[in-house]
Amino acid sequence: METKENITITPKELASNQPLIAFKNVHKYYGSNKVLNGINFSVYKGENLVILGRSGSGKSVAVKCLVGLTKTDKGEIIVMGKDITKLNEQELNQIRMKIGFLFQNGALYDSMSVKQNLAFTLQHNNKKLKEHEVDAAIIEALNNVGLLEAIDKMPAELSGGMRKRIGLARALIIKPDIIIYDEPTAGLDTITAHEIIELISKIKLKYNATSIIITHDLTCAKYTGDRIIVLKDGIIKAEGSYSDIENNADDWVKSFFEK
Questions:
Q1: How far, in Å, CA of 93 to CA of 180, rounded?
Q2: Is residue 38 domain-resident?
Q3: Residue 61 domain-assigned?
Q4: Does some domain include residue 170?
């Protein structure tokens, strides 16, 4: 697998920039269940932040809060300078249109071809585009994920890895400020998972993308993350580089690396 080169964000660079995303003492409860228990973290422009955690750790809920699909019970979530917890639905939609989302299962419309799936997303975001502009954007997005030949295929004709790639093309086609990857390697064989990991790294290099990668896959975390936070029961148990996490003294964090 290719290693990341010249893409790590240094502490000095982080200190000199305002975060693109900031969670400030964010709480989310479902009854007596504290899914997020006062978490604090930031994501900076051009950074890949991995949120690592097992099922039920709160990582998916954190992202749902980030895009306003779930309301927080306490705290602030600053996205591109705005506290999304205080926005109305129209204002939230303006933020959402700047966020590309790769869903875990690709989430393509089964009744639409690949081209129609991408065109629908692009035209939803920008209704003023002309047909030739839409076609050019589709070709660019598919070339970015190496699947131009699939342009006229239906989702049922695609493998799991291809569906993920098309899902990523759909996320990229709107030229987002932020990309969210939800378990990008889940359900894939090892070779296909490695291809997706390399693609995430290439997207970062090409577009200086700012991304949040939700995963429980250590290989994905290692090769895509500039920085990693580890969630357990809605609390951040560790934060740092992959090496920092791997050498963390906490027994629970160590358990991630036990064979």
A1: 16
A2: yes
A3: yes
A4: no
Torsion, Cα of 99, 100, 105, 109 (10° steps):
100
pLDDT of residue 1: 58
C-beta atoms surrounding 130 within 10 Å? 8
The pTM for the full model equals 0.87
The residues pairing with 182 across neighbouring beta strands, listed in sequence order, are 214
Number of domains in the chain: 1
12, containing H or E segment: helix 11-15
Contacts of 161 (CB under 8 A, 6+ apart): 188, 189, 192, 195, 196
Q: What is the CATH number of the domain that holds 33?
A: 3.40.50.300
Q: Which amino acid is at 97?
A: M
Residue 134 lies in a domain: no
Which of the four pLDDT bands, split at 50, 70 and 90, describes residue 240?
A: very high
Q: Where in 111-245 does DSSP place strands (E)?
A: 178-182, 210-215, 227-232, 235-240
Domain span at 34: 19-96+212-248
100 within 8 A of 174, measured Cβ to Cβ: yes
